[in-house]
């Protein structure tokens, strides 16, 4: 995990808006030649040259998308950048810039905004991203954070959700369900803490799960790996809501069905152990957990030799004709219909 905060409190009103913007952006450096003008003017200027520009944006609201009682601000900043980069990587593009817009209530001191930006800066350094602008304003309640990520790609390298074909293999990177379980562990500890603040949680058995929830990494490496392997996916999506929901998007947009196999779903041992402890079905968690920020993609079956056995990839099934629907083949060889029960911000509970 990232290191912790200091205890000072400086009121944001003391600095004023311009002082604050200057204070939080001054330590960022620019590393891409495509960034012509960054923070400081009325607008940033980019030069994508002969490439296509890829843009994705996300809005995060305190109490809806994050809970600061267990999400340190530095982690929030880092994760908010990851969520956006993940969308750019899911297009098989290279992310190069972000803008960051924040609204904070007077409950937050300058030190809180510094923490948030420390996480954003760490993400920018680690992933080679230029901060090129944003907006700063106050809110009547809580914190809002919106990040826009900008990337580029050669036109012929872009991968959309709509290109999957029957017989294509369905591949997922990394493993699934850990971030969701990390959240369950943190929620449980929060409840325990409410009852007894003296209780020191022992989280040793959940380190991977908590890391996946609080400090996810976007799969910048996959586009590079696919290039090395000379594989161009026919479709791709990032796993933000759980693969069930992502397969729905791919299948709907590609006008196909799919069949995935329960015994092929990649699960970390901590996920399996914690599912047993919490008495929840690990397959449900892998399918619908969400926030994995892995990539789900399809490749022609002729690429089987290129992707098989790669430690980054699990082949979990294949694309079928549309009339076959979306099917999960269980360990006992039963076929059940997949439901798109991903995270839905509008869904109750
Ligand atoms: P304007 O009044 O034109 O909206 P601002 O005073 O809001 O300009 O912003 C000044 C500069 O600082 C701009 O380049 C803007 O993109 C940048 N900026 C403002 N807020 C942020 C922020 N939270 N993070 C990064 N850059 C920011
Ligand atoms: Mg502004």
Overview of the structural elements:
This protein is of the alpha+beta class and 349 residues long. The protein has two domains: 12-156, 2-Layer Sandwich (60s Ribosomal Protein L30, Chain: A); 169-337, PurM-like C-terminal domain (Phosphoribosyl-aminoimidazole Synthetase, Chain A, domain 2, Alpha-Beta Complex). It has helices at residues 12-25, 73-89, 110-127, 178-195, 207-214, 220-229, 243-254, 269-278, 282-288, 304-307; strands at residues 35-37, 45-46, 52-61, 94-104, 130-138, 143-153, 169-173, 235-238, 257-261, 295-299, 313-320, 326-329, 335-337. α2 packs parallel to α3 (110-127). The two termini are 29 Å apart. The structure holds adenosine-5'-diphosphate and magnesium ion. Adenosine-5'-diphosphate is lined by residues 21, 25, 39-42, 100-102, 131, 133-136.
The averaged pLDDT comes out at 92
Terminal CA distance: 29 Å
CATH architecture of the largest domain: Alpha-Beta Complex
What fold name goes in the CATH topology slot of the largest domain? Answer: Phosphoribosyl-aminoimidazole Synthetase, Chain A, domain 2
Instruction: Spell out which ligands are present.
Output: adenosine-5'-diphosphate, magnesium ion
Question: Uncertain regions: pLDDT < 50 for 5+ in a row?
Answer: none
Work out the strand percent.
15-25%
Tell me the CATH superfamily of the largest domain. PurM-like C-terminal domain
> Helix/strand-derived class?
alpha+beta
Tally of distinct domains = 2
Query: SSE string, helix = H, strand = E?
Result: HEEEHEHEEEHHHEHEHHEHEEE
Give the overall silhouette: globular
Total helices: the number is 10
| Residue share in helix | 25-40%
Largest β sheet strand count, sense and barrel closure: 7 strands, mixed
How many E strands? 13
Radius of gyration: 21 Å
* Widest sheet, order of strands: 8-10-7-11-9-12-13
* Top-tier CATH class of the largest domain: Alpha Beta
